[in-house]
Amino acid sequence: MASRAGPRAEGTDGSDYQHRERVASHYQMSVALKSEIKKLIYMQVAIWLLLLAQMCVGHLKLLPHDQVAMPYQWEYPYLLSIIPSLFGLMSFPRNNISYLVLSMISTGLFSVAPLIYGSMEMFPMAQQLYRHGKAYRFIFGFSAVSVMYLLLVVAAQVHGWQLYYSKKLLDSWFTSTQEKKKK
């Protein structure tokens, strides 16, 4: 092999060593999955901030009641959904499996469960809106049920993809630790 300062070994152009210069696939996958999960965490934080802003405006009465409705009951426990995001971010620097598992479990508890409850809580109001055309809560002129269902669907997708990529990342990390143990 060639050194950084000197010529290549005689009789080779260096191409016979390319197999040594490739990064193992599970390391490549780990970097790619971390990037995807970070993007999803940032989206989740944006959703969280929107809900927090709506709750603050509703409770502090910064805008009239007909502009921003009071929050639904499912929004309060959903505020805890920031915890899984923090665990996820803390797991990345050293590939900490424990934090990633905590992130996945708490995503189900603090993120997905409130979304399921929210869909059940808002269903009668959505039914009334679409059957009779009556809405009693509004967010900037739009039916609060419609806006919150839209937010709920986006949040469910974000958390679903976050769990999927976290599981793939966990598998990738287990692969690398198993290879280290074999050596």
From TrEMBL:
One GO MF term on file is: peptidase activity
Pfam families assigned: Jagunal (PF07086)
Q: Name one GO cellular component term.
A: endoplasmic reticulum membrane
Would I find Hydrolase among this entry's keywords?
A: yes
Entry-linked InterPro entries: Jagunal
GO terms of biological process kind: endoplasmic reticulum organization; granulocyte colony-stimulating factor signaling pathway; proteolysis; vesicle-mediated transport
Q: Where in the cell is it found?
A: Endoplasmic reticulum membrane
Topology of the protein relative to the lipid bilayer: Multi-pass membrane protein
Instruction: Spell out the family assignment given in the record's similarity comment.
Output: Belongs to the jagunal family.
Please identify the protein, giving its name as recorded: Protein jagunal homolog 1
